[in-house]
Amino acid sequence: MGSLSSASSDSVGGARGLGSGGPGSGLAALFGRLWARVAPTGTPADTFGWFVAWFLLLVIGVQLLATAADNIGINGWWAYDTNAYWLAAQHVAGSQPLYAPAEIWTSGAYKYPPIYAQLVVPIGWLPELVVDWAWRIVGILCLRYLCGSWKLTVLAAYQWPVFAELGFGNVTLQLGAVALWAFRSNRAAYLLPWLAGLKFGPALLIPYFWFARPQMRRQLVIGCAVFAAACLASFALSPTMWFDYAGTFGWEANSQMQAMYVYAIVPNHGGVDFAVRFAIAAVAILAALRWRLDWLAFVAATATMPIFSLTRLAVLVGLWPLWLRGRVEAWRRKAAPPSQWLTAPLVHLDMLPRQSEPGT
Q1: pTM passes above 0.90
Q2: Are 234 and 114 in contact (CB under 8 A)?
Q3: Region for residue 80 given its phi and psi (left: phi exceeds 0; alpha: psi -120 to 50; beta: otherwise)
C-alpha cells in the first residue's frame, strides 16, 4: 500500500509539473501537435512525399506572396471586373443608364441582367478597393472549396488562370463553387437559376439534374420560380432597364471576339460563336446524362459563357474533388508499390488520405 501511495503521489506531481511548465512548454506542446500532423511516417515513400510537398508549398507560397505584393503596390490591386459591378451599383442608385454599347474588352461595362445590379446597390456606397478585396476574399474561399484543401489552394492560386481570376474579380470561381456544391447537395439547386442568369452555361445543369437526380426536382422548381418572381419584381421597379438589357443582345451578338486571353470559334460574330459553343455543351450534357459523367456536366456548364477566356479554366480545379481524386485513390490501392511514391506528395498536400500501415 505504501508503494502504491508513493507511486500515485509521484504521478500526480509529475502531472502538475507538466501543467506548470510555463509558456515555453505550451508552445512546445503546440509545436509537437502540429509536427505530428504534418510529419512523415518514416517510410521512404512517405518521407519523399513530405519533402516534395513542402518544397512546393514553400517555393510557390513565397512566389505567390511576392506577386501579390507587387500587385498591391499598383493601385492596391484594382479588380477589372469588380469595377463593372461597383459602377453598376452606382448607376442604379443614381438612376443613370446601366447599359451602353461596348466592346468585349471595354472597362467598366456591365453586361448582366438588371436584377443583379439592383441587388448589389449597397456596394456602390463603399470605396471601390473595399469592394474589390471583399469580392477577392470570397473568391479565395470559393477556390478553397473547389480545391478541397488549403494546401492545394496555395498551389492552384499561383497558376495563371486562377491568379488572373482572383486579380480580375470576376464571378468565375464563385460560379464554379456553387456548381460543384450542386453535385453534393440538393440545396444548391436554389442558386442554379441565378447562375444561369449570369453566364447562361449553368442553365445546362438544370435539365441534367432534373433527369440524373429526380430527388432534386423540387429544389429546381422552387429555385426557378423564385428567380422568375424576382425578375418580374425587378422589371416592375424599372422596366426601362430591362428593355435596355434586351437591346444589348443586338450589339453583343455582332461583337468582335478579339481580346486578351479570349478564344472564339467564330471570332467575327459573338452571337454565332456563343450559339456554337452552347450547342457543343448541350451535346456534352446529353453524353453526361447517358453515361452519368458528373465531371463532364460540370465542365460543360462552367466553361460555357458568352465570352470564353482562358482564365475560365480556373474552375477546372474542381475536377479534383469531383472526379480525379477518386480515380487516383482507386489506382493507388490497386497499382504496384511505385504508386505509393508517386502519390505520396498528394497525401502531404491533403489531396489524398493517408493509407493505413500494414497490419493496422
Answers
A1: no
A2: yes
A3: alpha
Asked whether residue 50 is domain-assigned, the answer is no
In a domain, 330, yes or no: no
Exposure b/e, 285-312, CB count within 10 A at least 16 = b: bbebbeeebbbbbbbbbbbbbbbbbebb
Q: What is the DSSP string of 273-334?
A: HHHHHHHHHHHHHHHHHHHT-HHHHHHHHHH--SS-BGGGGGGGGGHIIIIIHHHHHHHHHH
CA 280 – CA 259 distance, rounded (Å)? 22
Nearest to 137 by CA among 77, 199, 75, 73: 77
Residue with cell 504496384: 336
Averaged pLDDT of the chain: 90
Task: Please give the Cα distance from 256 to 15 (Å, whole number).
Answer: 75
pLDDT given at position 37? 64
In a domain, 109, yes or no: yes
Got the DSSP string for 2-35?
A: HHHHHHHHHHHHHHHHHHTS-HHHHHHHHHHHHH
Domain count, the chain: 1
- Given a contact cutoff of 8 angstroms between Cβ atoms, the answer to whether 336 and 40 are in contact is no
- Domain that residue 159 falls in: 80-245+258-324
pLDDT reported for residue 35: 66
Task: Report how far apart, in Å, the C-alpha atoms of 290 and of each of 102, 167, 281, 324 are.
Answer: 40, 38, 14, 20
Count Cβ atoms below 10 Å from residue 279 Cβ, excluding itself: 11
Give the pLDDT confidence score for residue 19 in this predicted structure. 45
Provide the 3-class DSSP secondary structure of residue 262.
Answer: strand
Tell me if 354 is assigned to some domain.
Answer: no
Residue 227: the pLDDT is 98
Q: Given this model, what pLDDT does residue 15 score?
A: 43
> Which stretches of the chain score pLDDT less than 50?
1-20, 357-360
Residues 41-71 pLDDT 10s: 668 888 899 999 999 999 999 999 999 999 9
What pLDDT is attached to residue 18? 43
Q: Which residues contact 34 (CB under 8 A, 6 or more apart)?
A: none
- In this predicted structure, what is the pLDDT of residue 28? 79
